[in-house]
Backbone:
């Protein structure tokens, strides 16, 4: 996932932040849990979130619970902006980090349905001047992190004072392509899966080359506007964006503002979006339908990739694909610029948990929070290491 990074910009004491403020949105009436039991679950969830925010020192968090395509809990906790004392609410906008990859993958599959891309096309079909080593890399390999192209955010490529990609520098798509084309493959395509932001950044360039449109415009035209996701868009720190949260990191126990990243690197297809839990609930509901893609193609996105060896690896197209006690779980997390995110879809149970925070990934665990909250709504989703509540 996109990594959280940080510099010294501003600091303030953490004292007082974690007297958690909660703002709830009107909820749908389709929660089928008896009223008393529902109130008890809500109380447990709120208590757990408050305790976890104190433990992890998370300034602000938004939680969305969706059942059968309907939001049954939409709530903000803590601060969206610490300096201005602005509380989180359901409409508060966070950065997605790598949760954005599922939208990139969906756009690719739309182009597959349009007949403009084939999953097993070698990518040099779309990238003139690609190195010979890319001749056997397919679009499917980019989607499933099986291309062998190294992750530009890997430890070996982010060494201090010698980073392969300078996050403070603007690059054109052509410049990024040339940089990535110079990297030797880490392994033969399809032989293993190794998470690569580079692959998804290249998918965004591929979308641009196939459609003639910036990938973010394709997402707006074909996904966000049709679904009414009015708060979801490409990151722009220059634009005035109502309800935008600030991202934070912890340094020796003190909260600091997020680090600045160049505008061009905040628009790439590996995870550079703004969204909120209201829009993510609309996204979740659409995934139970064929509004965006045919069911067969959605199923393909949510199927583990088969490696050259025949073994399955639990990643599809922009989604991790696992199970909990026999219950299928499709999920993904993200981290970028002092934000962390998680969407966990328990599709057999038609239950989805969305967690958005404004703290760096070294100190916040939205996946842990999402899994714990899911188990409070359905004890069958309690993991072996979790203690029943």
Residues:
């Amino acid at each position: 996932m996109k990594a959280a990074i940080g510099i010294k910009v501003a600091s303030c004491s953490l004292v007082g932040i974690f007297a958690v403020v909660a703002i709830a949105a009107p909820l749908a009436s389709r929660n089928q849990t008896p009223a008393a039991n529902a109130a008890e679950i809500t109380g447990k969830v709120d208590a757990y979130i408050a305790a976890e925010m104190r433990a992890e020192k998370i300034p602000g968090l938004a939680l969305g619970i969706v059942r059968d395509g309907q939001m049954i809990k939409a709530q903000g906790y803590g601060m969206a902006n610490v300096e201005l004392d602005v509380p989180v609410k359901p409409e508060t906008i966070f950065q997605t980090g790598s949760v954005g990859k599922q939208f990139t993958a969906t756009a690719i599959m739309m182009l597959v349905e349009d007949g403009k891309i084939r999953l097993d096309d070698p990518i040099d079909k779309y990238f003139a001047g690609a190195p010979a080593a890319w001749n056997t890399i397919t679009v499917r390999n980019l989607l499933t992190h099986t291309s062998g192209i190294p992750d530009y955010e890997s430890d070996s490529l982010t060494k201090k004072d010698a980073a392969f990609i300078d996050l403070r520098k603007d690059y054109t798509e052509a410049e990024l392509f040339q940089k990535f084309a110079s990297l030797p493959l880490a392994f033969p395509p399809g032989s293993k899966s190794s998470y690569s932001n580079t692959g998804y950044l290249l998918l965004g360039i591929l979308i641009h080359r196939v459609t003639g449109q910036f990938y973010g415009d394709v997402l707006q035209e074909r996904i966000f506007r049709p679904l009414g996701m009015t708060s979801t868009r490409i990151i722009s720190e220059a634009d005035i964006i109502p309800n935008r949260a600030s991202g934070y990191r912890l340094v020796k126990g003190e909260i600091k503002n997020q680090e600045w990243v160049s505008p061009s690197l905040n628009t790439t297809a590996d995870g550079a979006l703004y969204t909120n839990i209201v829009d993510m609930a609309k996204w979740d509901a659409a995934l139970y339908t064929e509004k965006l893609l045919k069911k067969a193609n959605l199923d393909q996105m949510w199927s583990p990739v088969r490696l050259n060896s025949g073994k399955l690896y639990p990643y599809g197209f922009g989604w991790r694909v696992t199970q909990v006690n026999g219950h299928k779980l499709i999920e993904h997390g993200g981290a970028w610029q002092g934000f962390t995110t998680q969407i966990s879809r328990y599709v057999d149970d038609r239950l989805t948990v969305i967690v958005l925070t404004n703290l760096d990934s070294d100190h916040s665990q939205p996946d842990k929070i999402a899994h714990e909250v899911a188990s409070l709504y359905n004890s069958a989703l309690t993991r072996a290491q979790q203690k029943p509540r």
